[in-house]
Design goal:
Helix content is 35%, strand content 22%. By secondary structure, the chain is of the alpha/beta class. The protein has a single domain (2-121), classed as Glutaredoxin, CATH 3.40.30.10. A 5-stranded mixed β-sheet has the order 1-3-2-4-5. Helix 2 links the parallel strand 2 and strand 3 (53-58). The protein starts with a strand and ends with a helix. This is Thioredoxin.
Length: 124
C-alpha cells in the first residue's frame, strides 16, 4: 500500500512501529519524471507492503519535511531502517533497482538523516 502523509499518518506510524523500513519517494506534481514513476512506485508498494512502509511525499505540500534534502533532481528516494538511513539520493526510477535497494543489508556508510521519519511520526 502506498501512503500519503496528509491522510495516512496513523497507518504510517503503525507500520514504522512494527519495524518496517520507511521508503519515501520525494516528488512533485509538476515533475514529469515523478508522474511516470508514480505507477511503478504504487505497484512496488502494493506487491511489497510486508517489506516496507511506502510513502509518496509531495515536496511542495510538505516542504518542511524536505528542507535538509538536496532536491535539484527528482525523484529522490529515502530508505530509512531503524538503524538509520540506508539510502538517500536520486536514482533512475526502476522497480528492480528499488527492490534491490530495499533488500540491501542495513546502513552502508554515513548518510545524514534528514528527519523525515520524525516528521511522519509526530502527533498531529
Amino acid at each position: 500500500m502506498l501512503y500519503y502523509p496528509e491522510k495516512d499518518q496513523p497507518a504510517i506510524v503503525a507500520a514504522l512501529n512494527h519495524g518496517l523500513p520507511l521508503i519515501v519517494c520525494m516528488c512533485a506534481a509538476w515533475c514529469n519524471n515523478c508522474e511516470e514513476w508514480r505507477a511503478v512506485f504504487e505497484e512496488a508498494a502494493r506487491e511489497n507492503s510486508h517489506t516496507g512502509c511506502f510513502v509518496w511525499l509531495d515536496i511542495d505540500e510538505h516542504f518542511d519535511m524536505v528542507t535538509e534534502v538536496d532536491l535539484e533532481t527528482l525523484p529522490v528516494l529515502l530508505i530509512h531502517h531503524r538503524e538509520g538511513v540506508a539510502f538517500l539520493g536520486t536514482f533512475r526510477p526502476d522497480k528492480s533497482t528499488l527492490l534491490a535497494l530495499i533488500r540491501g543489508s542495513g546502513v552502508s556508510g554515513r548518510i545524514d538523516d534528514p528527519g523525515i521519519r520524525d516528521f511522519l511520526t509526530e502527533p498531529l
